[in-house]
Specification:
Number of helices: 11
Largest sheet: 3 strands, antiparallel
Radius of gyration: 19 Å
Number of domains: 2
Strand content: 15-25%
CATH class of the largest domain: Alpha Beta
Oligomer: single chain
Helix content: 40-55%
Structural class: alpha/beta
Number of strands: 10
CATH architecture of the largest domain: 3-Layer(aba) Sandwich
Shape: globular
Distance between the termini: 31 Å
Length: 306
Amino acid sequence: MRWFRNASVVAVAVAATLGLAACGGSDSGDKPAAQGKGGAPIIVASFNFTDSQILAEIYAQALEAKGYPVTRKLNLGSRELIYPSLKSGELQFIPEYQGAAITTGFGKEAGKTAQEEHDQLAKLFEPSGVALLNFAAAEDKNTYIVKSDLAKEKGLTSISDLKKLDKVVMAGPPECEKRLPCFLGFKDVYKLTNASFQTIQEAGPRVEQLKSGAVTVIPVDSVSPLTGDPKYTVLKDDLNIVPTENVVPAVTKKVLDERGADFANAVNAVSAKLTTDVMRDLNKRVDSDGERAEDVAKDWLGQAGL
């Protein structure tokens, strides 16, 4: 859910980010392309968070297993950095999240269902030469958590219930402050006049501040292991500021035209087996258990028969 920054700043950041992609926090960022089926490697990208990197590895490895050459550009950053390179063809494949792509990538209000979002996003991408394949059942969207002891003491079950508190401090990445599915929604939709925002870029320090009681609420991914941790309570988004966020592969039309139906079928076969529970388990294995994204991706693909 990211809004576009100044175009000149984005251009410089993209050049720097892509040039350093091999150092961007993924062990497979400079992994050699697999050989097979001819042609230039398909450039698969990811955003700079765990779930996106796992998904990129899953799709990349599934394609390699079918003989397609792949080059990875993982852990690149936000949409502000990635979209210009996707639209130019420098990047060719990224697992996207439908609602966030619409609201953040294009500044539009998202549809009410996954199919509506799919149709809407396909039209938004079309002028840039980017198309969508089938969306998955798996979702990863902003979820808001508080400490369970506070939730029990104050009767907090929904975001609206935060009105019961004298003071609410949300901690999040800087872009959250001005996004409707994040802090802006707390202010403009939920009308939380008792709420303030604190910028904390990294997820780990945000969790530590929540644990200490220095902040009241933080956004986490819905596939985060924290959503199942009894120490934390997930607040219901009762006014629906966060759209549905089904995973969908966004692929340049050039790649789709060159690779044909077999390529699309290979990607769609992966999406058909991805669920939110699957992604929550894989995220836990990386974030909590310390496994590598490429290893958990390989393991799941084997179990799924892909």
